[in-house]
Structures are given as structure tokens and as C-alpha cells.
Design brief:
Elements: H1 5-41
């Protein structure tokens, strides 16, 4: 026997708040997880730093723009720009 329209409306009226509530709780939980990842990514004063003081590769890193055609560091004068209140 098929359900009537009034019976379907009754079931939907009882089921819709549960589905809405479950979606709301799931989205709220997801938002807190994402925010927690963001807060843990920012170092705070007093936190233990796990990074070493050296270069991450263990080698000296040179920008390719500083190399000439032979792969040696260029001896040309370089244009530098300083931002801020440098007193040098």
C-alpha cells in the first residue's frame, strides 16, 4: 500500500529537524577542526621550536639570479631595496 501525502509530510516534518541538526553539528565540528589546525600552525612565544638553525637542505642555498653564465656568483653591482626604518 502506498503512503499518502499527509503521511509523507508527517515523516518529513519529524525527519527534517534531525537531518538539519546532524548537518549543523557536522559542519560545526569541521569548522573547529580547521581552526585548531590554523592555531597550531602559528608559533607562540615560549613554544619549543623543532626547526634547526641551519639551512633545511644542509647546503648553502644561492638564488639562481646571483649566478653568471658559468655558474659562478656574479661580481656585478646589484640593486638592493630596503623597506622600513633602517638606520644604515
Amino acid at each position: 500500500m502506498l503512503a499518502t501525502t499527509s503521511e509523507l509530510g508527517f515523516v518529513a516534518s519529524k525527519l527534517l529537524p534531525l537531518v538539519y541538526g546532524a548537518c549543523f553539528v557536522g559542519l560545526l565540528w569541521q569548522a573547529f577542526r580547521i581552526m585548531a589546525r590554523g592555531y597550531s600552525a602559528v608559533p607562540r612565544p615560549g613554544d619549543q621550536t623543532s626547526t634547526s638553525s641551519g639551512d633545511r637542505t644542509g647546503r648553502l642555498t644561492i638564488h639562481p639570479e646571483l649566478l653568471d653564465e658559468d655558474g659562478q656568483i656574479t661580481q656585478d653591482d646589484l640593486l638592493t631595496v630596503r623597506f622600513g626604518d633602517d638606520n644604515e
